[in-house]
UniProtKB/TrEMBL annotation:
Protein name: D-methionine transport system permease protein
Cited PANTHER family: ABC TRANSPORTER PERMEASE, TRANSPORTER, PERMEASE PROTEIN, PUTATIVE-RELATED
Keyword Zinc: no
Xref: Pfam families: BPD_transp_1
Keywords for the protein's UniProt record, in alphabetical order: Cell membrane, Membrane, Transmembrane, Transmembrane helix, Transport
Similarity-based family: Belongs to the binding-protein-dependent transport system permease family. CysTW subfamily.
The organism's taxonomic lineage, starting at the top: Bacteria, Bacillati, Bacillota, Bacilli, Bacillales
Length: 220
Protein backbone atom coordinates (compact mmCIF):
# COMPACT_ATOMS: atom_id res chain seq x y z
CA UNK A 1 0.00 0.00 0.00
CA UNK A 2 1.42 3.34 -1.07
CA UNK A 3 1.86 6.05 1.56
CA UNK A 4 1.93 9.69 0.46
CA UNK A 5 4.31 12.31 1.77
CA UNK A 6 1.32 14.20 3.19
CA UNK A 7 0.08 11.18 5.13
CA UNK A 8 3.55 10.53 6.49
CA UNK A 9 4.35 14.19 7.20
CA UNK A 10 4.16 13.89 11.05
CA UNK A 11 6.69 11.04 10.87
CA UNK A 12 8.89 13.07 8.51
CA UNK A 13 8.89 15.99 10.94
CA UNK A 14 9.74 13.62 13.80
CA UNK A 15 12.55 12.04 11.78
CA UNK A 16 13.95 15.48 10.94
CA UNK A 17 13.98 16.41 14.62
CA UNK A 18 15.71 13.12 15.42
CA UNK A 19 18.40 13.83 12.82
CA UNK A 20 19.00 17.35 14.16
CA UNK A 21 19.15 15.99 17.73
CA UNK A 22 21.56 13.20 16.75
CA UNK A 23 23.86 15.56 14.88
CA UNK A 24 23.75 18.22 17.60
CA UNK A 25 24.56 15.89 20.49
CA UNK A 26 27.19 13.99 18.49
CA UNK A 27 28.88 17.22 17.41
CA UNK A 28 28.96 18.55 20.98
CA UNK A 29 30.50 15.34 22.35
CA UNK A 30 32.88 15.06 19.38
CA UNK A 31 34.09 18.62 20.02
CA UNK A 32 34.60 17.93 23.72
CA UNK A 33 36.88 15.04 22.74
CA UNK A 34 38.25 16.17 19.40
CA UNK A 35 39.27 19.77 20.19
CA UNK A 36 41.55 18.86 23.14
CA UNK A 37 42.88 15.94 21.09
CA UNK A 38 43.63 18.25 18.16
CA UNK A 39 45.42 20.70 20.45
CA UNK A 40 47.44 17.83 21.93
CA UNK A 41 48.47 16.67 18.44
CA UNK A 42 49.81 20.15 17.67
CA UNK A 43 51.64 20.92 20.91
CA UNK A 44 53.26 17.48 21.32
CA UNK A 45 54.51 17.13 17.74
CA UNK A 46 58.13 17.82 16.74
CA UNK A 47 59.06 21.44 17.56
CA UNK A 48 55.72 21.87 19.33
CA UNK A 49 55.18 23.84 22.53
CA UNK A 50 55.22 20.66 24.61
CA UNK A 51 57.13 18.36 22.28
CA UNK A 52 56.74 14.70 23.23
CA UNK A 53 57.41 12.06 20.61
CA UNK A 54 55.79 9.14 22.50
CA UNK A 55 52.60 11.05 23.32
CA UNK A 56 52.26 12.38 19.77
CA UNK A 57 52.87 8.96 18.23
CA UNK A 58 50.26 7.25 20.42
CA UNK A 59 47.63 9.93 19.77
CA UNK A 60 48.45 9.98 16.06
CA UNK A 61 48.02 6.20 15.74
CA UNK A 62 44.73 6.21 17.65
CA UNK A 63 43.31 8.97 15.47
CA UNK A 64 44.52 7.27 12.29
CA UNK A 65 42.92 3.95 13.29
CA UNK A 66 39.47 5.44 13.83
CA UNK A 67 39.78 7.70 10.78
CA UNK A 68 40.56 4.71 8.56
CA UNK A 69 37.42 2.71 9.46
CA UNK A 70 34.38 3.38 7.23
CA UNK A 71 31.43 4.54 9.31
CA UNK A 72 29.11 1.71 8.30
CA UNK A 73 31.71 -0.83 9.51
CA UNK A 74 32.42 1.12 12.70
CA UNK A 75 28.67 1.27 13.33
CA UNK A 76 28.43 -2.51 13.45
CA UNK A 77 31.83 -3.16 15.07
CA UNK A 78 31.09 -1.17 18.23
CA UNK A 79 27.53 -2.45 18.76
CA UNK A 80 28.56 -4.14 22.06
CA UNK A 81 30.01 -0.83 23.29
CA UNK A 82 26.85 0.98 22.21
CA UNK A 83 24.68 -1.50 24.11
CA UNK A 84 26.90 -1.13 27.19
CA UNK A 85 26.72 2.68 27.16
CA UNK A 86 23.06 3.30 26.30
CA UNK A 87 21.50 -0.12 26.93
CA UNK A 88 20.30 -0.61 23.35
CA UNK A 89 21.66 -0.82 19.82
CA UNK A 90 18.74 0.83 18.03
CA UNK A 91 17.22 4.29 18.14
CA UNK A 92 18.52 7.83 18.22
CA UNK A 93 20.46 7.48 21.49
CA UNK A 94 22.25 4.38 20.20
CA UNK A 95 23.24 6.15 16.97
CA UNK A 96 25.01 8.90 18.91
CA UNK A 97 27.71 6.52 20.22
CA UNK A 98 29.16 5.42 16.84
CA UNK A 99 28.70 8.96 15.51
CA UNK A 100 30.94 10.28 18.30
CA UNK A 101 33.54 7.54 17.74
CA UNK A 102 33.50 8.40 14.04
CA UNK A 103 33.54 12.19 14.27
CA UNK A 104 35.80 12.92 17.28
CA UNK A 105 39.01 11.85 15.46
CA UNK A 106 37.84 13.78 12.39
CA UNK A 107 37.32 16.91 14.51
CA UNK A 108 40.77 16.37 16.04
CA UNK A 109 42.38 16.36 12.57
CA UNK A 110 40.45 19.44 11.50
CA UNK A 111 41.44 21.36 14.65
CA UNK A 112 45.04 20.22 14.18
CA UNK A 113 44.97 21.53 10.62
CA UNK A 114 43.54 24.89 11.71
CA UNK A 115 46.11 25.37 14.48
CA UNK A 116 49.00 24.49 12.19
CA UNK A 117 47.91 27.33 9.89
CA UNK A 118 48.58 29.92 12.61
CA UNK A 119 51.59 32.10 11.78
CA UNK A 120 54.59 30.83 13.72
CA UNK A 121 55.77 34.41 14.09
CA UNK A 122 52.78 35.19 16.31
CA UNK A 123 53.65 32.28 18.58
CA UNK A 124 57.32 33.26 18.69
CA UNK A 125 56.34 36.84 19.59
CA UNK A 126 54.23 35.55 22.49
CA UNK A 127 57.11 33.39 23.69
CA UNK A 128 59.47 36.38 23.52
CA UNK A 129 57.05 38.30 25.75
CA UNK A 130 57.25 35.55 28.37
CA UNK A 131 53.88 33.89 27.78
CA UNK A 132 53.49 30.37 29.17
CA UNK A 133 52.59 27.44 26.95
CA UNK A 134 49.01 27.42 28.23
CA UNK A 135 48.69 31.17 27.64
CA UNK A 136 49.95 30.71 24.08
CA UNK A 137 47.41 27.93 23.48
CA UNK A 138 44.37 29.78 24.81
CA UNK A 139 45.30 33.39 24.04
CA UNK A 140 47.20 33.01 20.77
CA UNK A 141 46.70 29.70 18.95
CA UNK A 142 42.96 29.21 19.49
CA UNK A 143 41.91 32.85 18.95
CA UNK A 144 44.02 33.06 15.79
CA UNK A 145 42.56 29.80 14.45
CA UNK A 146 38.90 30.39 15.43
CA UNK A 147 37.74 31.35 11.94
CA UNK A 148 39.35 28.28 10.38
CA UNK A 149 38.06 26.04 13.19
CA UNK A 150 34.50 27.32 12.65
CA UNK A 151 34.73 26.49 8.94
CA UNK A 152 36.23 23.08 9.62
CA UNK A 153 33.59 22.25 12.23
CA UNK A 154 31.03 23.08 9.56
CA UNK A 155 32.61 20.36 7.42
CA UNK A 156 32.46 17.97 10.38
CA UNK A 157 28.80 18.79 10.96
CA UNK A 158 27.92 18.11 7.34
CA UNK A 159 29.81 14.81 7.58
CA UNK A 160 27.74 13.96 10.66
CA UNK A 161 24.52 14.65 8.76
CA UNK A 162 25.57 12.11 6.14
CA UNK A 163 26.72 9.60 8.75
CA UNK A 164 23.46 9.97 10.69
CA UNK A 165 21.60 8.99 7.53
CA UNK A 166 23.74 5.84 7.24
CA UNK A 167 22.85 4.98 10.85
CA UNK A 168 19.36 4.25 9.52
CA UNK A 169 20.64 0.92 8.20
CA UNK A 170 20.72 -0.41 11.78
CA UNK A 171 17.60 1.35 13.01
CA UNK A 172 19.37 4.51 14.13
CA UNK A 173 16.30 6.68 13.62
CA UNK A 174 16.15 10.01 11.82
CA UNK A 175 15.73 10.70 8.12
CA UNK A 176 18.05 7.86 7.13
CA UNK A 177 15.87 5.30 8.90
CA UNK A 178 12.77 6.78 7.27
CA UNK A 179 14.37 6.71 3.81
CA UNK A 180 15.34 3.06 4.22
CA UNK A 181 12.05 1.92 5.81
CA UNK A 182 9.80 3.59 3.24
CA UNK A 183 11.91 4.81 0.32
CA UNK A 184 14.06 1.67 -0.07
CA UNK A 185 12.21 -1.28 1.47
CA UNK A 186 8.71 -0.21 0.36
CA UNK A 187 9.76 1.51 -2.88
CA UNK A 188 8.05 4.79 -1.89
CA UNK A 189 9.99 7.08 -4.24
CA UNK A 190 8.28 10.27 -3.09
CA UNK A 191 9.26 9.56 0.53
CA UNK A 192 12.86 9.00 -0.56
CA UNK A 193 12.86 12.28 -2.49
CA UNK A 194 11.38 14.13 0.51
CA UNK A 195 14.10 12.84 2.85
CA UNK A 196 16.84 13.73 0.37
CA UNK A 197 15.46 17.26 -0.02
CA UNK A 198 15.32 17.72 3.76
CA UNK A 199 18.90 16.48 4.16
CA UNK A 200 20.04 18.92 1.45
CA UNK A 201 18.20 21.76 3.22
CA UNK A 202 19.84 20.88 6.55
CA UNK A 203 23.29 20.81 4.92
CA UNK A 204 22.70 24.16 3.23
CA UNK A 205 21.61 25.77 6.50
CA UNK A 206 24.63 24.35 8.33
CA UNK A 207 26.98 25.63 5.62
CA UNK A 208 25.43 29.11 5.71
CA UNK A 209 25.77 29.30 9.48
CA UNK A 210 29.36 28.04 9.31
CA UNK A 211 30.31 30.57 6.65
CA UNK A 212 28.72 33.39 8.66
CA UNK A 213 30.51 32.41 11.88
CA UNK A 214 33.84 32.00 10.10
CA UNK A 215 33.52 35.45 8.57
CA UNK A 216 32.62 37.02 11.92
CA UNK A 217 35.50 35.31 13.71
CA UNK A 218 38.11 36.13 11.08
CA UNK A 219 40.85 38.35 12.44
CA UNK A 220 41.70 41.32 10.26
Amino acid sequence: MDVSVLELWPRIVEATNETILMVGISLLLACLIGIPLGIALVVTRENGLMESGPVFNVLNVIVNIFRSIPFIILLVAILPITRFIVGTSIGTAAAVVPLVFFSAPFVARLVESSLLEVNKGVVEAAQAMGATNWQIIFRVLLPEALSSIALNLTIATIGLVGASAMAGFVGGGGLGDLAISYGYQRFETDIMIATVVLLVVIVQIVQMIGNYLSKKLRRL
